[in-house]
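Project outcomes to date are best conveyed with an example. Our students and postdoctoral researchers have been running inverse folding experiments weekly, and each run begins with a structure described purely in tokens. The record below, which covers 300 residues, was selected by the lab manager from last quarter's runs and is presented without edits.
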């Protein structure tokens, strides 16, 4: 899932959109045309809110639940909230949604002729998070990323009018990599939610037990496992990077920013010597800018 910020009470729409600044990658930078920025923020608002529902990170006070027609006694039921959110999403396409973030999204859906499928996949991913807490193999994790991450790339391409089968394939590699990197940054936080996104088969290979993930700092086995998964993410980013060279102008800079965000996060994990347990290793802005330049120049 995309990385959540700290929930705050107040305006539910603004509280959700304000989290864009804490992501690993630029969501809707100012160099983009205003229409693209508005539409990308509408897509982001949907993705961020559905993740916050799935993670139990909604702002206190129950405002989002009320907007979805859920009473206070049921506001902690994440599956019920996701069902209500999906019902409100349906109204984006054939009525008037109740949540302001979905009313914002409705303008984008109509203006860009978006289909329900990517949005439904993101809801399905969060529903899966309530039911599936562990992944046996890397392929199982990739299937999850196909729901939780790749649809975001499909939506970015659709909003910017850049969809082709080859670009979708490259976008999927980038989005999956970004999801894996976030999982690696958030190993301790996810364990606190009783979720482990490190494949069980890989944990067994590196002789890592779940108890090892609860330690204050990572031992040698955990570091080796994280290094292995980090290299997988790096390779996926490299596989997807041709997407950047396939477009021009400001869209090229935006997509370079996505790749650079992943590469900068990989560098931060590596610089931490793969010890992700004390807290998420985060790249600085200078490193991100360097990675943007390298990506635009076609450097790996």
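After processing, the design step wrote out the following sequence:
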């Amino acid at each position: 899932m995309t990385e959540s910020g700290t929930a705050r009470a107040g305006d539910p729409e603004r509280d959700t959109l304000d989290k864009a600044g804490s992501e690993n990658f630029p969501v809707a930078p100012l160099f983009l045309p205003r229409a693209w920025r508005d539409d990308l923020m509408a897509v982001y608002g949907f993705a961020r809110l559905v993740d916050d529902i799935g993670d139990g990170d909604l702002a206190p006070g129950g405002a989002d639940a009320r907007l979805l027609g859920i009473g206070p006694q049921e506001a902690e039921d994440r599956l019920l909230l996701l069902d209500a959110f999906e019902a409100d999403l349906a109204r984006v396409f054939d009525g008037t949604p109740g949540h302001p973030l979905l009313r914002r999204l409705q303008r984008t859906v109509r203006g860009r002729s978006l289909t329900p499928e990517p949005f439904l996949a993101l809801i399905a991913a969060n529903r899966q998070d309530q039911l599936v807490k562990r992944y046996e193999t890397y392929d199982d994790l990739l299937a999850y990323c196909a729901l939780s991450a790749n649809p975001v790339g499909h939506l970015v391409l659709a909003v910017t009018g850049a969809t082709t089968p080859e670009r979708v394939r490259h976008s999927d590699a980038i989005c999956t990599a970004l999801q894996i990197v976030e999982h690696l940054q958030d190993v301790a936080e996810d364990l606190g939610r009783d979720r482990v996104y490190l494949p069980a088969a890989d944990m067994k290979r590196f002789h890592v037990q779940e108890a090892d993930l609860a330690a204050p700092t990572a031992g040698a086995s955990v570091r080796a496992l994280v290094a292995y998964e980090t290299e997988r993410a790096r390779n996926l980013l490299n596989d997807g990077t041709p997407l950047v060279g396939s477009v021009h102008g400001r869209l090229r800079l935006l997509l370079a920013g996505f790749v650079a965000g992943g590469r900068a996060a990989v560098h931060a994990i590596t610089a931490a010597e793969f010890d992700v347990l004390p807290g998420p290793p985060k790249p600085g802005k200078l490193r991100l800018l360097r990675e943007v330049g390298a990506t635009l120049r076609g450097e790996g």
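Confidence is low (pLDDT under 50) at residues 1-9. The radius of gyration is 19 Å. The training component of this project remains on track.
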